[in-house]
């Protein structure tokens, strides 16, 4: 859409707009939104500062002795609110991610792009940290626009702005790294040479550059070009979803405040205050648009103008497309019923799985070599690998006990004399650190007569001193009466 009119004969052509951030000649249209410090701005400001405080404080916060959020990639662990998701927690991770996605879908179906306008880091940091600092360095809204027209990109004040943005980006990148390695590791790296941790140093360099480039130059282009959320809104919202909307019935036809207003003129005086304050450069009066992030700045700007000219507030307000058209509100509709049901199922599954999850994960595996071997004394040896993952926040000792070796087995196999049974366990009990995984090998030697049809079932029980107890059924392999052992001890 082009806002400029065709030039009259003899007039000098003037570059107009074809997109919110693009002029007809292909040049970048720099957006310097004029802030409107109304009630909605103040509410968003409180939310933004709370979110920023949580982001910077979260790496230092602990729940049950664990970080509030930690994505430990080297150890393949994810900690959230004191609970650690291990590589074996695929189901838990699926429930958590699914609930997050459906939650955003539900919020969008009910309140449009509330995430974009109120909680998205791009909006929060751009509108309440970087842009206010930029205005202070540039000398305010009017001075910023004047510097743009002059092409004065490298004045001393703007150079100071760029340096300040770099320092902020550096701090943000270090905080982000703390979410992946923890504050203790980060503090250690900061006091040592980058050559000792080149990957982490490279991450900080790249992320600092990305953050600086984004908030110094790219800014609203991230929302308009990179982020797909605006393009999803056509599928995620309907005509009943609450959005930031212009009441076309009340506002049209427009008439300037200084002009003679006819009896049928609408309340909109075409002051363009809503356009000047928009951080993505759109005209909200053109209806629902992909570029609108529902930041409510146009609401504050328009309400201020309506108050000045003695008109009721709400010409631009939170509403829905159907409400603006005079249709009744329908809260219960397919997506507002389906999304909560799916969300409840996912949260219920997450809660049940977390509640029923044991304090340790036990995995029993067969040896890596032959299924069994025959020793020199004729006994049959089975190698068993026992893998234990400790979910507790402290190191634990796990004794391993075997059932069905002496006497009758769990499958009523022939009894065995205790003198013929040998269990070789290099480390029993097995000590496993907090959140760690360890594997130990155990060798069980039994006489050949202990096996029936080439197998004997036993039980393996692992416990700790804090109530954890888990027993698994395991099948030992041996020679059968019809098939001799192809791997006797000493056979190559």
Describe the structure.
With 492 residues, the chain is of the alpha+beta class. Helix content is 39%, strand content 18%. It has helices at residues 39-57, 90-111, 114-119, 121-138, 141-150, 156-181, 183-190, 198-218, 221-226, 229-236, 248-251, 273-277, 297-308, 321-324, 334-356; strands at 17-19, 22-23, 62-63, 66-67, 69-72, 77-80, 83-85, 243-246, 316-319, 360-366, 373-374, 380-390, 396-398, 400-403, 422-424, 430-432, 437-446, 455-463, 469-477. α2 (90-111) runs antiparallel to α15 (334-356) and α6 (156-181) packs across α7. The longest helix has 26 residues, at 156-181.
Q: Cα distance, first to last residue? A: 81 Å
Number of domains: 2
Largest sheet report:
5 strands, antiparallel
Question: What is the tally of beta strands?
Answer: 19
Mean pLDDT equals 86
**Hey, roughly how much beta strand do the residues contain?**
15-25%
Report the principal-axis shape: elongated
Please provide a brief summary of the model:
The protein is α+β, with helices and mostly antiparallel strands and 492 residues long. Helices cover 39% and strands 18% of the residues. The strands form seven sheets. Strands 10, 11, 12, 15 and 17 form a five-stranded antiparallel beta sheet that branches. Strands 5-6-7 form a three-stranded antiparallel beta sheet.
Short key terms for the protein model shown above:
three-stranded antiparallel beta sheet; 2 domains; 19 strands; Immunoglobulin-like; alpha+beta; five-stranded antiparallel beta sheet; 492 residues; single chain; disordered C terminus; elongated
